[in-house]
Every structure is written in C-alpha cells, then in structure tokens.
Amino acid sequence: MREQLAALEQEALAAIQGTENLQTLEDLRVRFLGKKGEVTAILKQMGGLSPEERPQIGQLANALSETLTAALGVRREVLEAKSLDERLSREKLDITIPGQRLAVGKQHVMMKTLDEALDIFIGMGFSIAEGPEVELAANNFDKLNIAEGHPSRDWGDTFYFDADSAYALRPQTSPVQVRVMESQKPPIRVVSPGRVYRKDEVDATHSPMFHQIEGLVVDKGVTMADLKGTLNALIGQLYGEGTKTRFRPHFFPFTEPSCEVDCQCFKCRGAGCPMCKGEGWIELLGSGMVHPNVLRNCGIDPEIYSGFAFGMGLERMTMMRYNISDLRLIFENDLRFLRQF
Ligand code: 2NL
Questions:
Q1: 194 CB contacts (<8 Å, ≥6 apart)?
Q2: Ligand 1: centre distance to CA 254 (Å)
Q3: Which atom from ligand 1 is nearest to the alpha carbon of 298?
Q4: Ligand 1 pocket: which residues have CB below 6 Å?
Q5: Contact 284, 258 (CB under 8 A)
Q6: Cα 280 from chain centroid (whole Å)
Q7: Is 133 exposed, middle or buried (0-12, 13-18, 19+ CB in 10 A)?
Q8: How far does Cα 157 stand from its chain's mean position?
Q9: Pocket of ligand 1, candidates 214, 298, 314: which has the most ligand atoms within 8 Å of its Cβ, to mutate?
Q10: Which stretch of DSSP H or E encloses residue 301?
C-alpha cells in the first residue's frame, strides 16, 4: 500500500505539472481527490490493514492529500496568471489610433425663431398649448365660424382623411385654442405653435406643410387696445423697440373686427426696397377680436367675456430674420445651409 501511495503521488504530481489548462486541472482534482477519487479509493481499502499499519497508512494518505491540494493550488495560480496575460495581450488597446469624431447637431434655424418668439410670449404671461395635427372638422372649421361651403374647407385646399370630411390635417393651429377654451375657464392667455397643412404647390414662398404660432387672450373687458398693445410689444421685441406698425382692416371668419398687422420695413426703414417690394411695409400677422360665435361655440359667454387672437407664419418670419430667399431651403435639410445659423 505504501508503494501504491508513492506511485500515485508520482503520477498525480506529473499530471498536475503537465496540464496546460484550468479545466484539465479541475478534472485532475476530481480524479485524485474527489469522493470517488483514487486517493479516497485507497483509504477505503484500509479496512484490510493490521491495527499497527492503519494509522501509518492513514497519515501517509492524508499527507498525500495535502501535497496534491498544494500542488493543484500552485498550478492553478500559474495557469490563471498565464490566462490573464494572454487576455491582456489579446485585448490590448492601441491608444494611438485616432478616435471617431462625434457629429454634434444644432438647433434648426426655424426652431431658433420659434424659441425666440415663445420667450417673448412667456415674458408677457402666455402659456404654451399644443394639440393634435389630425383634427376634427368641427374644431378646424365649425367652431371657428367657418361655414360649410367656405373656400378653406374645400377638398382642393385641405387634406381630409375620410369621405365625410370629418377629419383633416389642421390647416391652422386655432383648433388647439378651441380645445383650450373648451377645457379651461377665462382668464386665458395661450400661444399654440405647431405644424399646419394646406394643399399648396411647393415654390419659393409656399409649402403644403408649414409652421404657425397662434395666440389667444380671453378675459372680462379685453379690447382692441389690448390687441394693439400686445402685438406692438411683440413686434418691438422681435424687430427693435420703436419699430412702427400698421393695423389694416381685414376679414377672417373667426374674428370681428379683424386686421392684418404690418411693420415698417426693417431694411429700408419705410423708403421702399426689394425686401418690402417697394411698399415700405412688411405684412407680419393676422389678428382680430374673437368672434362672439366662436366664444359661444366653445362654451364661453360672449356677454361676459371678450378676447383677441392672432396668427403668424414661422417660415416667413425666419426668412426675413435670416435673409433666406427660398422657403424650400428650410425643409431640404442640406447641412451646408443649416450649419450657417
Ligand atoms: C392668418 C392669421 C389668425 C386667428 C388666427 C383665432 C383663433 C381662435 C379664435 C379666433 Cl380660437 N381666432 N386665430 C385669428 C386671426 C388671425 O391667423 O393670417 N390666418 C389665416
């Protein structure tokens, strides 16, 4: 039995030294020291030994166990270090390779105009309201006092979704304000920015999709003076304090009275130039006192409340501010153009 143990030690140590990977090393541990391992097998035969020999052999067997455990541990450390070295050299980073430059985007030129305008409105106490781009004809037209048969309801002008003309892409953001009036009590002070859609052919000044900001104020005792004061303040902040304005009578179905608002040409100061087509004035927006029918349609009593509203196109404003000659440039997303702003 002594010889058996000695032979086993030789064999096991050689195998442990000779192994090159951690899995084989674990297999060896099981083979020699496991519950059904070879050392255990020898110990189980000790029943046949004499009482004098039994403790001696037992001691030898235990010593062999310890020797092998130690040898396995040493080998494990060696192999683990080796495998770590291999991984480190395989995964080595070459920090001299040039990095990939991140393409940093920037705000779109029209959103700059929008942010600027919204800042001014927020400064005057307005909040911002948004709503769906696919709207009920009721909100797009009926409640805004735009009667059946009005040209803007025509299939040639509006993008409808169904044969009954019940749903359409909103042709202005007024329906957002209809929703505000139906869901909030006066005083109301909101602006609604967003995309609007009309069946226009694309050219230098038209696009079937464009952006608008509309504004609405409803309270007791709101008059045309509030409209003028608010819009003059807006134009003063947009184009410089003291910019002259002109309120021309106009017609909209949803306001009465209505007016279009011009400012004195900021390029020629009124003398007449290509910018204002020799007029000396530039048309900026449409506005008016909210029609009593509109207030009533939205659940507000026109005997108690009055209001004013206005709407303006963002593309035109952007084109004037940044001297852009063709509206299509704004939507073509040519980075050479967009990076300028
Ligand atoms: C334009 C100018 C305008 C409004 C929009 C409005 C909204 C409600 C009630 C009354 Cl909820 N009016 N919006 C008023 C005047 C002008 O837009 O040139 N539109 C074609």
A1: 130, 131, 133, 170, 173, 176, 211, 212
A2: 7
A3: 11
A4: 172, 174, 177-178, 214, 216, 252, 254-255, 286-288, 290, 294, 309-311
A5: no
A6: 42
A7: middle
A8: 32
A9: 214
A10: none
- Enter the DSSP assignment of 304: T
Q: Are strands 255-264 and 245-252 parallel, antiparallel or unpaired?
A: antiparallel
CB atoms within 10 A of CB 272: 15
Under a CB-based contact definition with an 8 Å cutoff, are residues 141 and 157 in contact?
no
Q: Which helix (H) or strand (E) holds 309?
A: strand 306-313
Which of these, 78, 317, 333, lies nearest to 205 by C-alpha position?
317
Contacts of 63 (CB under 8 A, 6+ apart): none
The Cα–Cα gap between 43 and 13 comes to 19
Q: Show me where the domains of the chain are located.
A: 2-91, 109-338
- C-alpha 236/C-alpha 252 separation (Å) is 25
Say which residue the tokens 């509206």 belong to: 327
Rounded Cα gap, residues 125 and 172, in angstroms: 23
Per-residue pLDDT in tens (0 to 9) along the chain, 341 residues: 788 888 888 998 999 998 988 889 999 999 988 888 888 888 788 878 888 888 888 888 888 889 999 999 999 999 999 989 988 888 888 888 888 899 888 999 999 999 999 999 999 999 999 999 999 999 999 999 999 889 889 888 999 999 999 999 999 999 999 999 999 999 999 999 999 999 999 998 899 999 999 999 999 999 999 999 999 999 999 888 888 999 999 999 999 999 999 999 877 888 888 888 899 999 999 999 999 999 999 999 999 999 999 999 999 999 988 989 899 999 999 999 999 99
What is the CATH number assigned to the segment(s) 109-338? Answer: 3.30.930.10
pTM of this structure: 0.72
Q: Hunting for tokens 């909030």 — which residue is that? A: 184
Q: Classify the C-alpha dihedral 39-45-50-55 as positive or negative.
A: positive
Alpha helices in the chain, H assignment, sequence order: 2-18, 22-33, 38-44, 53-90, 109-123, 137-140, 174-183, 224-239, 292-297, 314-322, 328-332, 335-338
